[in-house]
Batch of 3 targets.
Target 1
Amino acid sequence: MDFADTPEVARFRAGLRAWLAGHLDEYRHGTGYHSDAALAATLRWHRALAGAGYVAVSLPAEYGGRGLPDVYEAVINEELARAQAPAAPPIGHIAHAIADFAGDELKTRVLPGLLGCTSSWCQGFSEPGAGSDLASLTTTGRREGDEYVVDGQKIWTSGAMWADWCLLLLRTEADQPRHRGLSMLVVDMTSAGIERREITLANGSREFAEVFFDGVRVPAANLVGQAGIGWRIAMHMLTYERGPADMGWVGRLGHVLAAAVEDVRTGRCAADEPLRRRLVACAVNIDVLRWQVARSLVDRAGVAASVDKLLTTRIEQELFRVVGDLAGTGFVQGDDRFDEYLWSRAQSIYGGTQQIQRQIVAQRVLGLPRG
Ligand SMILES: Cc1cc2nc3c(=O)[nH]c(=O)nc-3n(C[C@H](O)[C@H](O)[C@H](O)COP(=O)(O)OP(=O)(O)OC[C@H]3O[C@@H](n4cnc5c(N)ncnc54)[C@H](O)[C@@H]3O)c2cc1C
């Protein structure tokens, strides 16, 4: 496999670097989800990036993308991490659900706002009784004429507090087996009957919410594809949650590692032999992860995304344990790295837990029987 840039990719990369050099400074600090000001700065950053043509570039040009191969998405994430810029908006999976399954009218109506970052979106899948076992979800959509009437509850919905739209997975076909009874609706978050309640994360981030739907009326024209194909769309989306974005993640881990190595090299932190060995193992593992993530770009339909998630989780969590041990006393509140350490704990949960990813690898790679 040749990972060198083609001349076109190299030109694209150079253009992005030049743009970042001219635009990054005002966004270098103060973004995030801990306060209203940080959120406003984050949304401004997303719009600036989209306005410059560096968001969802693999989506079709007619809807606001650039119709470029996935590798360009990876380059964007890699360059943002290299420059220590805030991350790109995490919208690729939602954009692909709509672009690859919705009819033309819905695509034309909602994709330009999503891709241009002029509208904010959230993903309403998990429920209090349906996380790993997502197909057991109970939020329902009852068809009445040319509308669906939605009732139920979602939880752990990232970005729901400020989202204009929700891509909602719900049960519409009561008489079908559970996987075939699901559909996906695009829901206007300002609709009557929607209540959002904020959930603050352990690290102080205010990006989570639980969302309640009480008799919410949604036009049937907002159905993504046909009724009953919600599970297929959800599985398609999961393959876009990882891959290109992880290129940025690897880059960010590289910065954390470099800072830790510098602390030891300059004597700011003392590291005994076992701790030094763990630091070296982190360096090797981050390199391995880089190649695994590159592989998952060309093996999207396979299990590469699960392997990638398992590796990222293990490596990131161990890296932050090492950084904590280097600090001697562990982390203190207010230290940015404490924030990142807490976030690393979430890696083993979102987008499919560690245990579920292991089951996928056990069954589909090793061919083991179901446990
Ligand atoms: C940072 C973050 C962002 C998120 N964003 C969103 C979002 O935007 N939208 C959304 O819909 N959801 C979101 N989630 C929710 C996430 O998808 C769920 O938390 C996840 O799927 C796990 O579901 P659960 O929390 O219900 O845990 P459960 O499924 O109840 O699992 C609890 C524990 O049991 C284990 N377990 C469950 N079933 C099995 C099994 N069959 N075999 C072995 N072990 C098992 C799990 O691995 C876990 O350790 C987010 C979560 C996090 C942490």
Target 2
Amino acid sequence: MTIQVLNEGYQNDLQGFYVSKAERCYLYDQDGKQYIDMAMAGGSAILGHAQPEIQQALQQQLSLGSLYTAPTPLAHEYANLLSQSVTPYQDFIFCSTGSEATMRAIRIAKAYTGKKKIAVFSGCWHGSHDFLLIEEDYQSPLDSPRAALKSAGTPVELLEHLLLLPYNHQAAVKLIKEHANDIAMVFIEPVQGSNPRDDISGFLHSLRNVCNENNILLGFDEVITGGRLAVGGGQSYFNITADIATYGKTLGGGLPIGIVAGKKDIMDCIRNAPLFMGGTFSANPLSLTAGLTLINYLLNHPEIYQQINLAGQRLRQEINQFCQLHNINAHMMGVASLSRLVFCKRHIASRRERDTHEVSWDKQAEFYLLLKKRAVYIGGNRINFISSTHSSKVIDKVIKAYQECLFEWHQQGII
Ligand SMILES: Cc1ncc(COP(=O)(O)O)c(C=O)c1O
């Protein structure tokens, strides 16, 4: 009999790599070999792994019990802190993952507006529930993308409830106007993980305007950006207020969390409709404790954002200079402390352009294996996340490893 774990991360290309310990910016495999971690728990571990203040707070909370399924003042304390520092809102739904949060945001938007469709963007990722497990089929014209199911076993009928929009393309605004009567919410990651970029502010503002003018809700999926770009996430970074926002990852301090926040009249429909929002692990005291400790720490150490954002900038700059110097067909794109290597020289405006011009995903796996041999671990989504524990010496090592691997591939004529 062969027992298999079929969802152990999305990376089955690392040849028997199993983590036994994580500390600061390092992972350790079963033989005790140390790796610089650039995945950082999918971006969640902004203060590094096993952060002492969070560990201490968790140990204290553990002694008081880990799950109550009854109200706890911690939820109110956390909601207060969120409303003072993360969002402009006072009403929150807590759940356990980013996927749950986006699923609930969709339910709220549809119930509040009475409209049928959610508009999302080509290249988006909003989690693993059926509703948004879609991708662009890439056969359709750039300015009117068609959605296809990303997974077998999900109902094709759900596609009727979606409008897929081109990302970072003004045709999106035209499509939103044309379908305004059907669209409950335009839902977007302020920065798409698949092509993290700093030049997206104008596009986001144009979405805010068209949603205002056409009575459509604007939802920001801040599961990556919340707490990562700034404590207040993409909304504060790009100076835009969404009507509904979803959070997860970083704001859980390393423990599972999902959060939906929204304008009062929208969130009121949860009680009025009423909408179902329960869950066994929702607002569990451990996640709340870790999240509270993390946000307080970030508020007391605002210099962290300057440090990690500068480190991200340096990572991109030094890799890009190296590629230009050696005429290597690659560049690193990103914003603040998140970056991604793109295996082509040309500027890309979207994930569709990225996928069209770079070497295949399977081939890329070989590149990341080369980096792993140099003791640098990049996660399955290929995003490099920098934490406050990545010192400049650590970043030097990451840059050197990237440069060596890029040069090796260049010499082999791959890029
Ligand atoms: C923007 C975005 N939304 C939602 C999710 C889903 O979050 P989770 O994996 O916690 O379900 C993710 C996860 O990567 C994400 O990046």
Target 3
Amino acid sequence: MTHARVALFEAPDEKLTVVDVQVGPLAEDEIRIRVAGVGICHTDLTALRGGVPLPLPAVVGHEASGIVEEVGAEVTTLVPGDHVVVSFDSCRTCTQCTSGRPAYCELFAALNYFGTRLDGSTTMSRDGEPVHGNWFGQSSFGTHAVASVRNAVKVDESLPLQLLGPLGCSLQTGAGTVMRVLRAKPGQSIAVFGLGAVGLSALMAAKALGCTPIIAIDPNPERLNLATELGATHTLDPNAIDDIAWAVTDISANGVDFSVDAVGLESVVQQALAVLRSPGICATLGLQGLENDIVIDQGHLLLGRTLTGVIEGDVDPHQFIPQLVDLWKKGQFPFDKLIETYTLPEINEALAAAAAGSVIKPVIVFD
Ligand SMILES: [Zn+2]
Ligand SMILES: [Zn+2]
């Protein structure tokens, strides 16, 4: 049993409170990490609004990096001292996991959203009462987190550990969608709607793959400037343009090969479909809640167009995070440009900045 200082989530729409909790003992397949950094992802904000049926009190946070402090009895692949990035959890044994698609693990919801281990126990407690952890198999808004050996990816100790956590969710979601789902090739065209961490990661991946043109669409002028710096060939402000589809075909005749919707609003999904050439693929990634009806034109889809949803970039983090690290080392995935750091006592400020969009990727860092 050890202690952790965490940002406790006690009620929807209330500020988190920084308190001490007890952690452990570890189950046989678990590890405890000392958190070096943890990103704030929009799915955390959705949970903090009460948009996910997570039992409370709980600790959220699911983009951690850190150093392994202790491992459970059956853990053989990690040892104390290892540097890790912690991604989403998956069972590693079901049909989807064994075919390389753990983002569609048959136990995904139970392992990532329910706030307990599969046996109903919790990884943390406070004054003898359960504190719900296991959020994305980690609950890492704190100094220490319990993860499983399945979702911790070992990384090289020479890397800037504090900044690596977002590779485990938002960055792999955007990049994985372009590299592993759309499988874009050099010279193919792409439009990216919504320039948060997910959209900008999709854009950086498209640039790394040699896509052109790369059209970035967002109402925020600072983000359009950053998109240009990161490789966008064209930028569009939807508030300044009546017809996005027309503007895109003006840049890329007949439309684009691929579009990525990193917003999730009906109007944006409709635009992301409207800009496609025939055939073409639109990937929708933005989460606006578990129920989000949209109307689309079947006549438009019939022309060989595809609309697909993607979770976590449909990647296996154990393979994909090392690839993103290699791209970063070559200067082709400069995700550090999206990050601003905060300390744990500043977490409510960091959450507000993420919600307002004034910071693309806040990361809480620890000494
Ligand atoms: Zn599985
Ligand atoms: Zn996330």
